[in-house]
Input
Amino acid sequence: MGAYILRRLLFVIPTLFGIMVINFTLTQFVPGGPIEQIIAQAQGGGDVFEAISGGGSEVAESAGNDRYVGARGLPQEFIDELEREFGFDKPPVERFFTMIWNYMQFDFGESYFRKIGVFELVLEKMPVSITLGLWSTLIAYIVSIPLGIRKAVKDGTPFDTWTSGAIIIGYAIPGFLFAILLVVLFAGGSYWRIFPLRGLVSSGWEDLSLYGKIIDYFWHITLPVLASTISAFATLTLLTKNSFLDEIKKHYVMTARAKGLSESRVLYGHVFRNAMLIVIAGFPAVFIGVFFGGSLIIETIFSLDGLGRLGFEAAVARDYPVIFGTLFVFGLIGLVVGILSDLMYVFIDPRIDFERREG
Output
């Protein structure tokens, strides 16, 4: 197993390198950039997209400096100074390998517009996204596993039919639409103002008692976590049900029943471990799916300052150090979690040997 883990860890390096190559290359062809953003603000446009799509006459007038649409009227020395400040006076290949060398030393640089290190910025925003991902995954498992087992035991009954209908509806509703529905109903949108709409904690949270802090924290995360949980809940419930149905039909279950064991003993003493292998071992992957998948929309709707919102704002502002830094961190986390998923399989069922299967 040690050799397998070592090979997987070594495979992380070329995978991360490939991710960075693709994304760095794409940014070279995307219109707009940090310099264009500053030019748009300097000329009162306020937005890089307005400078890019400002109309044919503006484009024609800027022919003297066609690399930066809308730069007409700004001194060339100012443009050159911006290029030196952001490093765009160097060839793209040199900039890319300089970035990779810095990343190997975990030096992610500094945000162009926030004047803070990217690493510090990611650490500052990560607790919000981890909160959403972790609580959503835990709640999905706590609800889905008992419900999936019950559906497997009651397969074909009215209970199974009605719950399947509810699950399908839940799976079909996009997370952002469910989030908006929660806001309209329970966050003062049109009906009740039961839960807050902004932030992870209230202002003055530090002055609350320990009990007050806990209540305030859960009060704020209730709606975002519910909105993040809905899709994972549906998937996990059906996966649990199907896993149990597959195991219940096997010969060892019939043998256990023939020996006179109670149904609960058969179900939880024999079936549970085998049926839950794929469900429990997939916990890291489900967490990452929730962590990455809905973080942007959920954080935006509920005004949570997390990694998803940070990445979106960096993309709009063309803040390349933040974009590439978050991509690197997300890619690294995703690859490490893939290894952890394999280790979970082995932990739950030691009979699995990845080294022998690879050989």
